Amino acid sequence: MSYNGSGTFNINSTGQPVVAGTVITASAFNALTADLATGLTTAITKDGQTTTTAQIPFAQGLRSTLVTDSSSVSTGSIITDGGMGVAKNLYVGGTLNVTGSTSLTNPVINNIKMGYSTTATAGGSTSLTVSSNYRQFFTGTLAQTIVLPVTSTLVTGMAYEIENNSTGLLTVNSSGGNLVGTIPAGVCAHAVCIGTTLTTAADWDWDYISNTTITGTGSAVLGTSPTITTPTISSLSSAAATALTLQSAGTTAVTIDTSQNVGVGVTPSSGTGWANNLEMLSTSNIVNQGTDFSVGTNWYYNSGYKYKTTAAVTNIYQKAGTIQFQYAASGTAGSALTFSESMRIDSSGNLLVGTTSTPSGATGSIVANNASYIGANKVVNWTKTNSSNNVTTATVVFQTTSSWWTNYISFTVSCVQANSANNFAASYLYQIATLDGSSGSPRNVIAQGDTAQFSISVSGNSGTGSQTWTVSVTGPATVNRMILTLEAGSGLGVNATA
Q: Fewer Cβ neighbours under 10 Å: the N or C end of the chain?
């Protein structure tokens, strides 16, 4: 007697089937009961006493009438100490709780509800664990330190998305206190566990994945050689010890070095000390020197003035209300240079050529250069109007601004007064002699800074209007430069130079 392998129980022990009229023997009956006992023992008991020795196929499925929800591995309708294989679709009408790892191959998932937590920054620390939600949002105005879980409690591939919706800086450390990354305001980062043996940043892969705030339109750009159209930029900066450059059509147009020297179309020369260089094209230069300002060519400032190239130098220098026109002969590129001054406009508005100061007693003078000296048969006029009182005496003063040869100067002094019939005019031929008022033979050369003066008397002026004094000078061709001052009384100062 046995099962036939398809679930059918056959009674085929000795003495079976029983023949009518046959005496029932003990051996035949005992064989039958033994076979029955074996068959019943092989069956599954409803009270759970039997443990099956093979997989049981349920042709119509398996149904449990137990309505209690599963809350652990020891509760619920179906409990298995081993794994469960499902060849067809699995439908879960309630919550699917999975304690261990779940491996899905090419699943189609319409949507996933990812857990998140929101923390207000407080200048403190937030520690994440294996049970922390995937998304971590931080709000507030203060900084916060975030400590990632101990990686030995995780499995590789577990990740945390940390979004900084605060205005403070988030610092993310490993469980051992090592910096993994920082998250500025408005930025989201992703930390993936890639190892489970260390407590350092080496067990984490760190990436910035998005900005929470985006302005502008168009495509995103990458960090190397992007093309950005009409951006609004409030600040530009370069890496430490690196010059900042701006390009136009692929060519560097502006360079700002780490000492704030600026080159437009050229790499700026290194400048240190109290000045910064603004260089343009090949040799042009603009330098701000504290409260002073220079515009020139072929020089730069680097703890002193230096030649940009091996060539001559020019410069316009503004300082303390004066404008100085400077130059230097050709010198070697990179070597020190010293400026000479050819002309200046002083703080009183005087134009000085070949000199750096106005002669004593002269105001409002014009100092001409060698091309405008009082030459032979050349007349230079100076005019001054005195609007105060009648003046009867004028003083003519000559002062040299460089050495020149002794010669004669002819000049005419006139005074025209409104409402007066007694206007004055007189001509003089004056020999520049010692020029210091002493007697003696004329000197051959008049030294720079020598002066000569004499008085002109005007009598009979009785008008009530203003006086106009005029001096016309015709000088010798050998005069280089000189200053003529006409002083009429104490209220009239006329300074003119040629």
A: N
Phi-psi map region of 159: left, alpha, beta (phi>0 left; psi -120 to 50 alpha)? beta
C-alpha closest to that of 352 among 483, 486, 472: 483
Confidence of residue 8 (pLDDT cuts 50, 70, 90): confident
Q: How far apart are CA 49 and CA 150, in angstroms?
A: 46
Beta bridge partners of 457: 393
Backbone angles phi, psi at 151, to 5 degrees: -65, -20
pLDDT for 77 beyond 50: yes
Whether 147 and 129 have beta carbons less than 8 Å apart is answered as no
How confident is the model over 314-323, as a mean pLDDT? 90
Mode of pairing for the β-strands spanning 144-147 and 170-173: parallel
Angstrom distance (rounded) from CA 302 to CA 138: 50
Is the predicted pLDDT of residue 373 greater than 50, yes or no? no
CB 397 within 8 A of CB 493: no
pLDDT number for residue 146: 97
Q: What is the largest CA-CA distance in the chain?
A: 192
| Cα gap 458→425, rounded to integer Å | 9
Count the helix, strand and coil residues of the chain and give each as a percent rounded to the nearest 5.
Answer: 5, 35, 60
- Rounded to whole angstroms, how far apart are CA atoms 160 and 183? 13
Q: Which two tokens stand for residue 436?
A: 């210091």
Task: Give the integer Cα–Cα distance in Å for 279 and 271.
Answer: 11
**What per-residue confidence (pLDDT) applies to 363?**
37
Residues in the chain: 498
DSSP per residue over 392-418, as a string? -EEEEEEEESS-EE--EEEEEEEEEET
453 three-state secondary structure = strand
C-alpha 270/C-alpha 89 separation (Å) is 75
End-to-end CA distance of the chain: 149
Residue 33 phi, psi dihedral angles, 5° rounding: -65, -35
Q: What is the DSSP string of 270-317?
A: P--SS-EEEEETTTEEEEEETTEEEEEESEEESSSEEESSSS-EEEEE
pLDDT digits (tens, 9 = 90+) for 396-442: 555 444 444 444 455 565 666 555 555 555 555 444 433 333 333 33
Residues 250, 227: contact at Cβ < 8 Å?
no
Dihedral sign computed on CA atoms, order 253, 257, 263, 266: negative
- pTM value is 0.40
pLDDT of 447 strictly over 60: no
